[in-house]
Backbone:
């Protein structure tokens, strides 16, 4: 009966050695297919895990960071919402003297209830949704400023409620 126990152990060891050898062999084949420059950016994070050491898209472009956003109830205007959303992004709104009167008026509008909660999406997309189709988002990456420009194809409403 004791020989029965010992008979299973060599098989188990053979299986383990073969499996670990296959894993190492397949890893080396994958590494051999990659360019030499890619191998130098690989960082081992655990015994069997390796990751590429490079910045994320959000680290390269601060406004492309994907976040779920829930704006607190005490924020009442679109401008206050922008200040709140940009607080940790590294960006800020441009000074009032730079903004057009139309952009200032848009920022003073009440924040719609539908714009208080956004599922995970890039910050730039959320801001584009909040300003609507009447404005373009202007980004100054040197000074990390956000401003707005009125779209040329959106006409102002006339006295009858239609567009000109």
Residues:
């Amino acid at each position: 009966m004791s020989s029965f126990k010992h008979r299973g152990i060599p098989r188990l060891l053979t299986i383990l050695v073969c499996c670990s050898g296959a894993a190492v062999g397949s890893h080396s084949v994958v590494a051999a297919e990659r360019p030499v420059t890619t191998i130098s950016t690989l960082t081992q994070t655990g015994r069997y895990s390796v990751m590429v050491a490079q910045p994320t898209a959000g680290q390269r472009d601060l406004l492309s960071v994907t976040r779920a956003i829930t704006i607190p109830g005490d924020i009442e205007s679109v401008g206050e919402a922008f200040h709140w959303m940009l607080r940790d992004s590294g960006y800020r709104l441009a000074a009032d003297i730079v903004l057009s009167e139309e952009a200032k008026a848009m920022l003073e509008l009440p924040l719609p209830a539908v714009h208080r909660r956004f599922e995970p999406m890039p910050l730039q997309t959320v801001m584009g949704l909040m300003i609507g189709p009447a404005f373009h988002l202007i980004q100054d990456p040197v000074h990390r400023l956000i401003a707005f420009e009125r779209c040329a194809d959106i006409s102002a409403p006339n006295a009858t409620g239609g567009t000109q």
Q: What stands out?
A: Helices lie at 2-33, 36-40, 57-60, 78-86, 101-108, 123-131. Residues 2-33 form the longest helix (32 residues).
